[in-house]
Design a protein that fits this description.
Structural class of chain A: alpha/beta
Structural class of chain B: mainly alpha
Number of domains of chain A: 2
Number of helices of chain B: 11
Radius of gyration of chain B: 19 Å
Oligomer: heterodimer
Helix content of chain B: over 70%
Largest sheet of chain B: none
Distance between the termini of chain B: 41 Å
CATH architecture of the largest domain in chain A: 3-Layer(aba) Sandwich
CATH topology of the largest domain in chain A: D-Maltodextrin-Binding Protein, domain 2
CATH topology of chain B: MetI-like fold
Strand order of the largest sheet of chain A: 2-1-3-10-4
Helix content of chain A: 25-40%
Chain lengths: 258, 221
Amino acid sequence: MRFVRGFVVGLVAGLLAAPGASAQDVTLSVAVSLKEVTEELGRTFTAARPGVTLRYNFGASGDLQKQIEAGAPVDVFLSAAQRQMDELERQNLIVGASRRAFARNALAVIKPADSRVDITKPADLLEARVGRIVIGSPKSVPAGQYAEESLRALGLWDRLQPKLVFAENVRQALDYVARGEVDAGFVYTTDVASRAQGVKEAFRPPEDSYRPVVYPGAVVTASRQAAIARAFLDLLSSPQGRSVLSRFGFQPPPAGAR
Amino acid sequence: MSPDSISALRLSLQVAVAATALNALVGIPIAYALARRRFWGRSLVDLLVTLPLILPPTVVGYYLIVLLGRRGLLGAPLYNATGWTVAFTWYAAVIAATVMALPLLVRTVRAAIESVDRDLERAAYTLGRSELRTVLEVTLPLARNGILAGVVLAFARALGEFGATLMLAGNIPGRTQTVPLSIYTAVQTGESAEALGLVAVLTALSCLVLIAANRLGARAA
């Protein structure tokens, strides 16, 4: 049978071409708020290491945590909050000794660039002219967890419930605002630059209304490229890494944080 | 297009080709059995093969996790014996796409086989041909265009698979991130240009496949 033979050949060819991880393939699961800065540091990193390929898996830290728990082939985890890293460390899924805090961030409330609604302080969000407000889903998105904490501390959480819509990650929240689908949104101050055309900052929630936004990074226990993974974390916390992070608007981590 | 988009496109094609080949190997015998044989459990096989057509892909994905996941019915013994699990690998994407595409192939091929004149098969039997040789020399060649149409449809379905793939294979760039998953991620993170490029490529590919299937279908009728 000519075409049965064709299928078998196709199957074999397909299996032979299976994309396997090459010897120096390193996968980084990275909180999406770190997207541009990680890509920039990644270029520096691979330029000095011929043969090393970095693969980025950007997403909400909570989703990335769940993937690692389910056995995803990941080498490095950069989280936007301590909680997700703590849970992985408790299960020995990350290498505790490799864990370090490398940056700090802050929340910003943004509105569409062409918005004419006046929003300058938290209480303004209650006004009728402000319709929908987007935050990251607090179940899996750290930016949403910080936003919830802040709104609770400010006594606005319950009253804003009818206005809230939830995004799958902080960049989706940013995108909703940039496309004008919502009137305001909670993102990180550093996110604004990536959609400077579409959004503008309205105000920053008081920093004592939510836990410090600290980014920890660690090597994943199951990594087969632990040495390269560790070298990437070292670059991140080196003076060179710090200066790139600060260029993208990130602050140094608080002393003693890990 | 970015390197990630290109690798997603390559991966999608590889997954779709492998899933289509598996579909043909498994689906054509099933289609023949359903069309020509009366056996115990026939309606059950028919039901199981057709279910993925109407079940939400997430339900199929859930069943696949329960079956093949690290703690799954088949997955757990495999993991204990080998330390290997299918979840988050390229194979998971192939399995998900195969299961989701199977109903299209089986239903199309079955109809094609049913439309073959039984007298021609009987003539082959009277001439002393075995059932296998009759199938290979009479039935399948006569159903050829219908079979090819089924294969093309299965390929198109495999190329577009999203839900079951996301659940069993995850969304790991370069490993299991096919074009539909890549589009999802791009839209989620506000990369409209990236999404648009992939959407255009996938739409064009699907149109080509449908045109091919329609031409084959028209010739079969």
